[in-house]
# Entry
Amino acid sequence: MERVVEENLDPKDWREFEKLSHQMLDDMVQYIKTLRDQPVWKPPSSDSKRFLTEALPTSPAPLEQVYQEFKEHILPFTNGNIHPRFWGWVQGTGTMTGVVAEMLASTMNPSTSFGNHADILVERQVVNWAKEIFEMPQEASGLLTTGGSTANLLSLAVGRNSMFPEVRTKGMKSLPAPLTVYASTETHSCLDKSIEMLGIGRDYYRKIPVDDNYQIRVDDLNRQIENDRKLGFIPFCIIGNAGTVSTGSIDNLMELSLIAKRERMWYHIDGAFGAVPRILPDHYNELKAIEYADSLAFDFHKWFYINYDACCFLIRDGNRHKEAFAYTANYLLSHDKGIMAGDINPHQLGIELSRGFRSLKVWMNLKQYGIETYRRLVRQNLDQAQFLGDLITRESELQLMAPIKLNIVCYRFNPKDSNDANELNKQIVMRLHEDGIAAPSFTLLKGQYCIRVAITNHRSTRQDFVELVKNTIRIGRELTKRSAIIA
Ligand SMILES: Cc1ncc(COP(=O)(O)O)c(C=O)c1O
# Structure
């Protein structure tokens, strides 16, 4: 018989691999240690853009060369959210523990779908810790997901499937009338997508106006539900915001919970980042009603500073969660013994069968730092937001655009003689990014373009916000002077 030379993908020279992989870790530690000296962001060079369009490699290349290419073409052109002066959108920073946890998880490389193994138990423990954090009952259930978008989608799917189980077999057409969903106009756009994907349709998504604090108008909500019932629709779900994406405002969660109960509707809370300050005594009361929600979505990768991606949703009634997606294929049946002996099947609590070991980095960070550390850091970010607000109000050329409820500050450069403040502030944001100084993002409040700072960054210091204010004014003045000369 012909001798077959079999191969695998492990290193051919382990010593060489050891050396190089240690070098990679050393480089990354050094990179994070010196981050503050780097620009927050820089655009990918044209050379790197060209490099990243090369065709599929056919023959092998040494790992050392591939690593050099990574260092040259990828690493310098990252999003920047690890930097101390990144405050765009709501993006977390990650930790060095997360870096090594990803390496450990990736070494084990389990698919955390089902079965009798420790990684499944780790995720279970993390979900139980989340239940503890938000004081959800013992019988609550949950799952880690990629992000808030999936967590919100799955939460609503559980609500829909458990309230209208016939939808699972007969589809939405089996319902006697369309379902309607209610949330404020400030609700994150991922919920529009969820509503589309669940077959509810955006025409049945009632966006309720907000008051001056960007909180849902409860009287309008009540009126809309009543009206929809009269018209024969089926009011299905109220979504409360624990921290809206634009301003961080928190809806009156307790009142929404009572309305949902009275109307026998599903009550979901999107607490992507704003649920987290519930761990602080002075935010506990306004976020307490989270424990009464039927479902909650919150991100570990935002205000728990865990490396991407790590999100979680919790379902108050664990049985409803299990029933919402329950489906057992004959090749996935539980056994009495062996790998299939476990009774925890994460794949039955969501839509993914193949799932990575994202719970390890959450588990390691929470164990290492303990909830006390998060209390201090979340408090630090909240204080930094107030500090920035004070800096802004002291400057006559800057204007605070919304009350600072949590960690989000919206402001703009607003010289009295500027008649196009929207364009001017957009230019300021782009310059702050392009010059690598800072990375705030932006939002429109009542049609006005605002520079928006969302602080979920454990590396920021007060001095970073001083720099932001100083540079906003400097760039704003330069741009106003330039447009005056052109005019
Ligand atoms: C309030 C809110 N909900 C949902 C999301 C979506 O979460 P993710 O980006 O993790 O998908 C975000 C993102 O910033 C958010 O701020």
Remarks:
- The longest helix spans residues 359-394.
- The two ends are 86 Å apart (CA to CA).
- The chain is about 45% helix and 15% strand.
- The chain has a mean pLDDT of 96.
